Amino acid sequence: MSEIKVPELAESIVEGTIASWLKQVGDTVSAGEAVAELETDKVNVEIISNEAGVLQQILKQEGETVQVGETIAIVGEGAATGSATTAAAPSEAAPAAPQPAPQTAAANAEQNPGQEGPRYQPPLGPSAPVAADAGQALATPAARRLAKERGIDLTAVPSRDPAGRITAGDVAAAGQEGPAPAPAGRPSAPAAAPAPAAASASTTAAEDKRVERVPMSRRRQTIAKRLVEVQHTAAMLTTFNEVDMTAVMDVRKRRKETFKEQHGVGLGFMSFFTKAVVGALKAFPLLNAEIQGTDLLVKHYYDIGVAVSTEGGLVVPVVRDADRLTFAEIEREIARLAKKARENKLSLQDLQGGTFTITNGGVFGSLFSTPILNGPQVGILGMHGIKERPVAVNGQVEIRPMMYLALSYDHRIVDGAEAVQFLGLIKQMIEDPETLLLEG
């Protein structure tokens, strides 16, 4: 027999949550094959089996927290012997205990959708095809966890994703459709129940319909914790400017077709701003530093984090050595990292070591916002939506495509004058893209 253990992840990660089991008891497992998905603070990691065999026992269930090095399953030779090989098999302790009929348990779950307590779970093994189908449904870990908590069959949940993947939002929407009408033969509540208890049950039912309790994912908890930590530990301040996007939009209009034919990727705004940020960081190196105790670590490399919104929350994969990349290489790398982020395939290496961050709320329609630092970095640039506005140009009022820029910085290391000049230099390079070739 072979134990499947939680692997070493990263120096800062010591535990995770079992997001989903990719194999069930009795399934054949190949050496090097993934058997479970582990949700950590930063990314989801597949746990693999080092030996081939049959999955004999599952020691940790979905939603449980596990430590690095902890055994979560057993792989051995031969076939599994049903529920007796599962660590959580209740029939082993009390084989003669009568089990409630599935119809009764399902009815109870419908009557009390928000009530705490045990819910009906189909038994594992060949006798439960519904459970097997639900395990094979194309669904995100968050969707699987929410469906399990609410006793919702994933195979009955319609997906709004064009790819057919079931998300947590789909599961929540399915749960809000409400319970089915009670069949005529369903027994009613005991007539002798005291009035106060009936009133309490009615109040609870009413509250359940209006209030939805959704557990935060491990990643969302980590995001919340770190954002609060940054605001408690850094002297964060934000300065604003606006930039005329006419020149950049003209370059894109003239070059986008040729650019895509030559490089196989579109020419977006992010490559321009990444180049401008690198040029400004070279001129103001303290915005590319961090504080460690009483020392300043000034970094002479430019690993630019690009914020990407995913179903599980905001992640910031890093474009390495952005100063050495061409416009096409930057666009290609950003597209690659964004695709990995949305497919939940980012590695820890993709997220570590950034020196400065760019976030673009404009893709969601944001006109103006204050970005929060991505600690231990001391600077983050916020891009916003492009809107045509009347502006004064050489004494004349003209309609120009304008974007507000926001720079949040740690005032402990960066003075206001440096921050304002840093943002002004970015504005200058964007409004005159030729300077990006010289300074970016």
Structure report:
With 440 residues, this protein is an alpha+beta fold. It is built from 13 helices and 19 strands. Strands 9, 12, 15, 16, 17, 18 and 19 form a 7-stranded mixed beta sheet that branches. A 4-stranded antiparallel beta sheet has the order 1-8-6-3, with no helix packed on it. A 4-stranded antiparallel beta sheet has the order 5-4-2-7, covered by helices on one side. A hairpin with a 4-residue loop joins β4 (34-39) and β5. It is elongated. The termini are far apart.
Overall morphology? elongated
Structural class: alpha+beta
Which value, in Å, is the CA radius of gyration?
27 Å
Terminus-to-terminus distance = 57 Å
What low-confidence regions span 5 or more consecutive residues with pLDDT below 50? 81-98, 100-135, 178-192
Query: Quick one: how many beta strands?
Result: 19
Report on the biggest sheet.
Answer: 7 strands, mixed
Number of helices: 13
Percent helix, as a range, is: 25-40%
β-sheet strand percentage: 15-25%
Task: Output mean pLDDT.
Answer: 78
